[in-house]
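G., the chain you wanted modeled:
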Amino acid sequence: MPQVIVCDTNQMPFEEVRRGRVHMIRRKRLPLDTGLPGVTMEYSLSIVPDGYFTPRHRHNFDQIRYTLSGLQSTGHGDLAAGEVGYFPEGSYYGPQKQQGECACLVLQFQGASGERLLSNEEMNATYDKLSKAGGKFENGVYKGFGPDGAPKNRDSYEAIWEEHEGHELVFPPSRYRDPVMMLAANARYWPDRKRPGVEIKHLGTFSEARTGIGFMRLTPGAVLPAGNQEDAELRFCIGGSFEYDGRPCGQGTYMYVPNGAEVKALRSAEGAEFFVITLPQLADLAALLTPAPPPRATAHG
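Predicted structure as tokens:
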């Protein structure tokens, strides 16, 4: 039975991210285990430093960013505090030229194409391997060598992915021409008719995987009832306080609520607000891996 994870990110240490970009991102990795073989997702609270740079590029995975503080460069319009960006697989963005520090939540996850996302451990190990082979990571580019020994430059991520996977990275066709930038302050909260005292600000549902992005607000005294979780949710408390399973929680608390988990009631005496990402694809993919029950025998008279 999958378990709900609750952690206070204020008490978590930062780690440095080695990706061959200019200046190091520092981040806190938030627990997120899909429970599915080969399906990797990475969620983090990241500090993007002044001067961070990446060239124009694209991913073979989906990415969601929510700015907590500062102004986040994307090359498609900066994301101010409270704004959200969806960066679909196959769609170009950048260059990113960060001016001033910013804090943000970043989810990287397998897109609807099913292309593999390397884990943090796989990325770091391959980065070290390429560095020891004599190449250099500079300004978001890996300056290495081709099979014939001639110099060959590649995007840092592409070089790491291809070295680990052993074949050329082929990007999935883009489903969106550009990343989607969401001005959350201009959207309103909408009452949830099934849960009194709960309000939802839904910003969008994306791709065949039906990934949902938005916010949830509990008015003072509201309760999220206990029950079985149908679709996985990532909840990050951005304001107020609440209690879950007898534990008091406040701003900066992260909850991973996996599909199929038995969830206890969540109560908020003074009110609380969450940034929420919903991931129906995890339950969908799990269903594909579950063997179909044998056909029932038909009784004959």
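Residues 120-165 form one domain.

Shout if anything looks off.
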